[in-house]
Amino acid sequence: MSLFSLFGKKEEAGSKREAKLEKQKTNLVKLGLMEETDKLIDYFQAGYVERLIGKFGQWQQGWAYFTEERLIVITGLLEENIVIPYQNIRALEKGAQGVAQIAITITYENMRSGEIVSDKISMMKRDQWMQFMAERARVAAD
């Protein structure tokens, strides 16, 4: 038995985390980016490519939210947030942000336009999250 479990620290940390997840979920539901019935799994800072001309763009900082049903990337004020239901994903490919091998190119059907588009995001634990999306999308994680 650890010292932390004697004093309830581990349970306290877990309840704080759950409270943070619930607060973030409430905000995402209010913004119309997530359904009330969906479950928020995790969120963290991530990079995304802000499209400038066609496929060309520059890396920006944002926040990635993984739910049971979709990936949500909160972008800057002038950009439209990226919302990708896993069922719309057609392909996942590993990539790089500069020299760091932490990016994923996600090819998916845009919910609003019906067009097939690709977005590039970067995050720590890329392989873990890529596998998470691949399982839900039923596609290969290349």
What can you tell me about this protein's structure?
With 142 residues, the protein is an alpha+beta fold. The protein contains three helices and seven strands; from the N terminus they run ααβββββββα. The chain has one domain: PH-domain like. A seven-stranded antiparallel beta sheet has the order 4-3-2-1-7-6-5. Strand 2 and strand 3 form a beta hairpin. The radius of gyration is 17 Å and the shape is globular.
Task: For the structure shown, list the relevant keywords.
142 residues; single chain; PH-domain like; disordered N terminus; seven-stranded antiparallel β-sheet
Q: Strand order, biggest sheet?
A: 4-3-2-1-7-6-5
Q: Distance N terminus to C terminus? A: 42 Å
Total beta strand runs = 7
Helix content: 25-40%
Averaged pLDDT: 87
CATH domain topology = PH-domain like
* Strand-pairing-aware structural class: alpha+beta
In terms of quaternary structure, the protein is single chain
| Overall body shape | globular
CATH architecture assignment name: Roll
CATH class: Mainly Beta
Name of the CATH homologous superfamily:
Pleckstrin-homology domain (PH domain)/Phosphotyrosine-binding domain (PTB)
Q: With helices defined by DSSP (H or I, 4 residues minimum), what is the helix count?
A: 3
